[in-house]
Amino acid sequence: MKIVLATRNKKKIEEIRRIVEGMPITIYTLDDFPDCPEVIEDGKTFEENAVKKAIAVSKHAGMPALSDDSGLEVDALNKAPGVLSARYAGEEADDRKNVEKLLREMINKEDRTARFVCCITLAFPHGEIKTFMGYCEGRIGEKPKGSNGFGYDPVFYPEGYNRTFAEIGDEEKDALSHRGTALRKLHQFLKTYG
């Protein structure tokens, strides 16, 4: 199956490519469709954003589109940053600024439980939509550690681990991660898809 990824995030594209390796998928990116319009992520949930992006890109490209909306929910912050994870410290913020803001907000918080959430949506040009959710429970550290990954990986300790996502290797992270879980559900769907 030919699928276009509805994202311009290079790190996310790299991670998705790695996880779907060996699946019956030929991946295209928005670089293959440079005139594809930007989709405003104004949904209140990860699913709303993922569905909106997948539908728009699928219609534009005329082929199935796979989108991913994901982020971090921190219990002590009423599930923030949530859908605003990529722009938590402002529209122009980068990963470092987002992590710095999160750590400032977590000063003196005893409850450090958190989870990564991922919604993968596969939209077809004929209108069919499938969504696959993935979660990874864990906790927020006190300072960034490690150099792998992206986003909040340097401060997120998956449940049962004393290393952050940024300290573990790609293969190990993919086996645990919210995105890996959601993409494995997609794989199961593709095995049975007509």
End-to-end C-alpha gap: 11 Å
Shape: globular
Strand content: 15-25%
Order of helices and strands: EHEHEEHEEEHH
Task: Determine the structural class based on helices, strands and strand pairing.
Answer: alpha/beta
Low-confidence stretches: none
The residue-averaged pLDDT reads 93
Under CATH, the topology is which?
Maf protein
Number of discrete domains: 1
Q: In DSSP terms, counting alpha (H) and pi (I) runs of 4 or more, how many helices?
A: 5
Largest sheet: 7 strands, mixed
Number of strands: 7
Output the CATH class name.
Alpha Beta
The CATH architecture is Alpha-Beta Complex
What is the helix content? 25-40%
